[in-house]
Design a protein that fits this description.
- The chain has about 425 residues and is an alpha+beta fold.
- It is built from ten helices and 18 strands.
- The strands form five sheets. Strands 2-3-5-4 form a four-stranded mixed β-sheet. A four-stranded mixed β-sheet has the order 6-7-9-8, with helices on one face.
- α5 links the parallel β6 and β7.
- The radius of gyration is 21 Å and the shape is globular.
- The two termini are about 35 Å apart.
Length: about 425
């Protein structure tokens, strides 16, 4: 990317920079600015060394209107560089903030991304060839669209039920309800299921900027985590988890082509869950899905018997045998993950824990939640990436983690960048 293009992008973005700086100052934070005319340089091999740092970086670049250069992209993976879903994720974010991009090609290890304006709401459609994760594209564009002042509709085609990414059931049953607990409007529809390795699925999500006044997920005294958008606004809290789960459902979902092969997984699920009160095993056929495919996932709800209107505390695990243990069933792996989580005493599972950070960062109130200790590589990578873009005025991180045995408490300072109608 040449100097003239970069200067043009910076000139176009300058009109809103003073507003951004003032908003951060009110939150006791500051942007980590680069030298004039320069890119923020990001090492893509840092942390988990995969796609997380790429997605978070372009999302934050769009929000802060900060030109970035990412090198050594996905250096920690067996197939390094950009793959199809990463290219679509970057292009999607570029569409939203008018970014000029270079290095956007399959296998590329270096990328330049320079926003030319603030993110714009609208109706967007993106498609990934094959079973690349539609949910990871959504993860990339969601923070930027939350900073817009009007609703957006996104339609994303690709894989919706994949092993190495958040699946549609996780989004609809766990993640989206937590966004609503922050006051964010999310209406979602699975247009068509798409299983690995064929894909061909599609989802549609309508994202509505939050109401300035909202209830947090758990009633609690105010915390000094940011600047509330209204006197009645409270930080998001998911710090306590009742010891007893009230509902556990393990679903064995397959395409029509694979439906005949579900019996071993269903049997394994019933064996794993036989000693669990109120447990249910649900065989399910994903009608309309192409090719062969299977997903096994467990959802569990928690609440105290004394709660008349309990907040949603829900966790989710997707079973996939680890490398070298392919002889194990998906159901048994799912149950093992859930058992480890139960022993931790945390309120958010490790997958939800890293997904909560960027939305909470954008709120005015911030939030706090507990996760299994130590926090996952995806979570620590997200924290390190956030530190590259903004910090508290004293130079400390906007996201802190305190380990206390099996549980870590994650505290996110809100910056007040989440738009409100």
């Amino acid at each position: 990317m040449n100097v003239e293009t970069l200067n043009h992008c910076q000139t176009m973005a300058a009109s809103s920079s003073h507003t951004l700086a003032a908003t951060l100052q009110r939150a006791g934070a500051k942007q980590c600015l680069t030298a004039p005319g320069g890119f923020l340089d990001i090492d893509g091999s840092r942390g988990e060394g995969g796609g997380q740092i790429l997605r978070s970086s372009v999302a934050l670049a769009a929000i802060f209107q900060q030109p970035i250069r990412i090198h050594s992209i996905r250096a920690g993976r067996s197939n390094p560089g950009l793959q199809r879903q990463h290219c679509v994720s970057v292009q999607a974010c570029a569409d939203i903030c008018g970014a000029n991009v270079s290095g956007l090609s399959m296998g590329s290890a270096e990328l330049f991304f320079a926003p030319s304006r603030a993110a714009q709401s609208g109706s967007y459609r993106w498609a990934i060839d094959g079973a690349g994760s539609a949910s990871l594209v959504l993860q990339t564009v969601l923070p930027a669209l939350l900073s817009c002042s009007s609703p957006s509709t996104v339609e994303i085609h690709g894989g919706t039920h994949t092993d190495m990414a958040p699946s549609w059931p996780f989004l609809s049953e766990v993640f989206f309800p937590q966004l609503r607990a922050m006051g964010i409007g999310v209406d979602s529809t699975l247009l068509k299921p798409g299983f690995y390795p064929v894909g061909g699925g599609a989802l549609r999500v309508v994202i509505t900027p939050r109401s300035p006044s909202h209830a947090s997920s758990v009633a609690a005294p105010p915390l000094a985590l940011g600047v509330p958008t209204s006197p009645s606004a409270r930080p998001y809290l998911l710090a306590a988890r009742p010891s007893q789960y009230t509902d556990v459902v393990m679903t064995v979902e397959t395409t029509e082509k694979t439906h005949h092969a579900t019996a071993p997984e269903v049997d394994a699920a019933r064996v794993a869950m036989q000693a669990v009160p109120a447990a249910t095993v649900v065989p399910k056929v994903a009608y309309g899905a192409r090719g062969a495919g299977m997903a096994v996932y467990l959802r569990a709800d928690f609440h105290d018997a004394s709660e008349t209107d309990p907040p949603q505390r829900r966790v989710f695990f997707c079973g996939k045998p680890p490398s070298g243990a392919e002889h194990k069933t998906r159901a048994s792996c799912c149950w093992e993950e859930f058992s480890v989580f139960l022993a931790s005493g945390a309120a958010a599972d490790e997958y939800l824990a890293d997904q909560l950070m960027l939305p909470l960062l954008l709120t005015g109130e911030g939030g706090r939640y507990t996760a299994p200790s130590p926090v996952s590589l995806h979570s620590s990578t997200n924290i390190g990436t956030i530190d590259l873009f903004a910090k508290r005025e004293d130079g400390s991180s906007l996201v802190t983690v305190v380990d206390s045995g099996a549980t870590s408490t994650v505290t996110v300072t809100g910056l007040g960048l989440l738009a409100a109608l």
